[in-house]
């Protein structure tokens, strides 16, 4: 998934279940049962692609967003013989990679019923990678090789359905079931141009594989805070690529690694308009298996597993009942996670479809 898979962090005003007793000095009419208020789902916009508050029936939300992701990798490699821990005979090579991704997306959410919401997300992706390799030689020369790659275009369009499973009675948390589908509208890693040696000449804007992610979100209101947690499984569908990537190498079936996705945190309302969110997310991504054919026959290459963990911070401000500004910051805490991910979301809501 996605990981997909995606993040903006925000919190609207926390709405907790209120007692139904009448104010002092006011009694209910004789013979009329008191009105029992239903617990209201807490309005948490904690993590955009995990699920939270559902859009009311007939309400349409249009959400433009802009996301910036940066990853930096520094690797020092020794090629030679180690005689003692302080005596190395050979050469060192230093590799540095700087990866930047800009994603502009337009998301639409529609409340089909008060418990069912549908979402469509259309992203446009721009990627830029700078790869630098320094290889000192025995003659004390240090040639440096720098390579710039970029790619832009439509990303993978996503469709999500969310359904509120319960009404949060008797102190129970609210549970929301989520089902996300990721398409292959972006250029995948086997759709881009390569040279005769199989080296890519541009960057992909999509994963290249269909994916489905079921997940469950739990929301527990504790005024003025709301605790949230999400558990999901990202299933990446395998595909027979059957493409020649270099003069003597063909790629057959590719099985992308699935992922277990976990997140939890707390959203806190400072006042009726402003709020912030603290959280943590972790994706455990399995190995990707690639079948290949070359002059030596047939084989299978497996990648290593990935552990992508990030600290989540978010701020939200409600400009008016229909418009809010949400800013999310994601800080990588594991080697496989991006260093920083900054997301700005500005959802606009309208009840124009409520009469339908």
SSE layout and pairing:
Blueprint: E1 60-84, E2 87-111, E3 116-134, E4 144-154, E5 158-164, E6 174-182, E7 211-222, E8 225-236, E9 239-246, E10 249-255, E11 259-269, E12 274-285, E13 289-294, E14 297-302, E15 306-320, E16 323-332, E17 340-345, E18 348-350
Antiparallel strand pairs: 1-2, 1-17, 1-18, 2-3, 3-4, 3-5, 5-6, 6-7, 7-8, 8-11, 9-10, 10-13, 11-12, 12-15, 13-14, 15-16, 16-17
The rounded distance between the terminal residues' Cα atoms is 35 Å
The helix/strand class is mainly beta
Full CATH superfamily name of the domain at 60-70 and 97-127 and 148-239 and 258-283 and 309-350: monomeric porin ompg
- Quick one: overall form? globular
Oligomer: single chain
CATH top level label of the domain at 60-70 and 97-127 and 148-239 and 258-283 and 309-350? Mainly Beta
Unreliable stretches (pLDDT < 50, length at least 5) are: 1-31, 81-90
CATH architecture of the domain at 60-70 and 97-127 and 148-239 and 258-283 and 309-350: Beta Barrel
As laid out across the biggest beta sheet, the strand order is: 1-2-3-5-6-7-8-11-12-15-16-17
**Rg result:** 25 Å
Calculate the mean pLDDT score and round it.
81
Order of helices and strands: EEEEEEEEEEEEEEEEEE
| Biggest beta sheet attributes | 12 strands, antiparallel, barrel
Kindly estimate the percentage of residues that lie in beta strands according to DSSP: over 45%
Indicate the CATH topology of the domain at 60-70 and 97-127 and 148-239 and 258-283 and 309-350: Porin
């Amino acid at each position: 998934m996605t990981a997909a898979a995606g993040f903006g962090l925000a919190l609207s005003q926390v709405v907790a279940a209120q007692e139904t007793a009448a104010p002092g000095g006011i009694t209910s009419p004789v013979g009329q049962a008191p009105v029992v208020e239903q617990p209201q789902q807490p309005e948490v916009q904690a993590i955009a692609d995990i699920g939270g508050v559902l859009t009311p029936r007939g309400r349409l939300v249009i959400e433009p967003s802009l996301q910036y992701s940066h990853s930096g990798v520094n690797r020092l490699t020794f090629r030679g013989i180690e005689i003692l821990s302080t005596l190395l005979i050979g050469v060192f090579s230093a590799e540095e990679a700087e990866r930047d991704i800009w994603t502009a997306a337009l998301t639409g959410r529609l409340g089909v019923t008060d418990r069912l919401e549908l979402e469509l997300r259309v992203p446009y992706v721009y990627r830029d990678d700078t790869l630098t390799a320094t290889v000192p030689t025995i003659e004390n020369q240090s040639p440096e090789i720098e390579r710039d790659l970029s790619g832009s275009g439509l990303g993978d369009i996503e469709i999500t359905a969310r359904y509120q499973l319960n009404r949060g009675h008797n102190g129970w948390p609210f549970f929301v079931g989520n089902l996300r589908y990721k398409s292959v509208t972006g250029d995948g890693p086997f759709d881009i141009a390569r040279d005769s040696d199989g080296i890519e000449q541009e960057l992909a804007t999509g994963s290249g594989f269909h994916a489905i992610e079921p997940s469950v979100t739990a929301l527990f209101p504790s005024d003025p805070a709301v605790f949230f947690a999400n558990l999901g499984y990202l299933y990446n569908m395998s595909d027979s690529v059957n493409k020649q990537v270099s003069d003597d190498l063909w790629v057959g079936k590719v099985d992308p690694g699935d992922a277990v996705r976990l997140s939890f945190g707390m959203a806190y309302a400072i006042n009726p308009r402003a709020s912030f969110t603290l959280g943590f997310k972790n994706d455990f991504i399995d190995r990707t298996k690639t079948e290949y054919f070359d002059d030596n026959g047939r084989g299978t290459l497996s990648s290593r597993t990935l552990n992508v963990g990030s600290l989540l911070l978010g701020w939200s401000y409600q400009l008016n009942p229909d418009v809010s500004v949400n800013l999310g910051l994601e800080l990588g805490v594991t080697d496989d996670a991006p260093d920083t991910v900054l997301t700005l979301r500005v959802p606009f809501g309208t009840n124009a479809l409520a009469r339908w």
